[in-house]
Amino acid sequence: MWRGAGRLGYIFPMRELSEAEFHRYARHLILDEVGEEGQARLLDARVVVIGAGGLGAPVSLYLAAAGVGTLVLVDDDAVDLTNLQRQVVHMTDAVGRPKVDSAAETLARINPGIAVERVAERLTPDNAGRIVAGADVVVDGSDNFATRYALNDACRAAGVPLVAGALSRFEGQLTTVMPDADAPCYRCLFPETPDPELTPRCEEAGILGAVAGVIGTLQATETLKLILGLGEPMKGRLMLWDALDMSVQEIRYKKRPGCRACG
Question: Where's the THIF-type NAD/FAD binding fold domain (predicted)?
């Protein structure tokens, strides 16, 4: 059996699902838009998740449960007691351990049929290209603009979609940077690093734990859509979600002439 052209234009043979996989992914298989072919795509996919924290936790949990075949977790931090209020992939007895190890063990218990690769490094402009190489989708769960810019540039260069999320107090954001020539990138949206006082990190401003779960789950949904070729990605659109009044706004943005990453 064969499936459609992959992201690089090649044709890949579709893997046969085992009896256990048919049972595990039964609720996917009965969706006409997914089915056996779609589940095989998920099982063949490789997704890089930057950060095993507030966003990376729900992202990795749902991608593992969905059967994404290879998850690459990138984080150089260790689990702290203050993380547990929102970073649901880590248990209390993991405090002090590397986040990639803690998360990998949790994901293995959720779905032992997938592979989890651990990269205990901080993503930088120097290693970003190596880390995203070979990915079908990259998910950004980082918490600083230096990492976001480096990741944006590496994904544009590699031709890999980037699903970017961000959090602050009771609010969250989501956008997707596609590798299409006419698609705007993260630097088009934020050409200059915002004032740090206007974008404090969660250890400074605080964060309602469940907000991370909402945005991370939306990132996981967007990632599954991209792998399966379903719906419309958040290309050129920034979603703003406010938990306090349960409102959603959308800001459209365009490719910026002279952008250093995609201009």
Answer: 25-260
pTM, to two decimals: 0.92
202 is catalytic: yes
Number of domains the chain is built from: 1
Structural Rg of the chain based on CA atoms: 18
Residue 74, judged by CB atoms within 10 A of its CB (0-12, 13-18, 19+), counts as buried
Domain carrying residue 147: 35-252
User: How far apart (Å, rounded) are the C-alpha atoms in residues 257 and 263?
Assistant: 6
The Cα–Cα gap between 218 and 64 comes to: 15
Residue in 155, 202, 259, 262 annotated catalytic:
202
pLDDT tens digits, residue range 207-255? 999 999 999 999 999 999 999 999 999 999 999 999 999 999 999 999 9
Q: Which of 207, 231, 205, 206 is nearest to 218 (CA)?
A: 231
Name 26's Cβ contacts closer than 8 Å, sequence gap at least 6: none
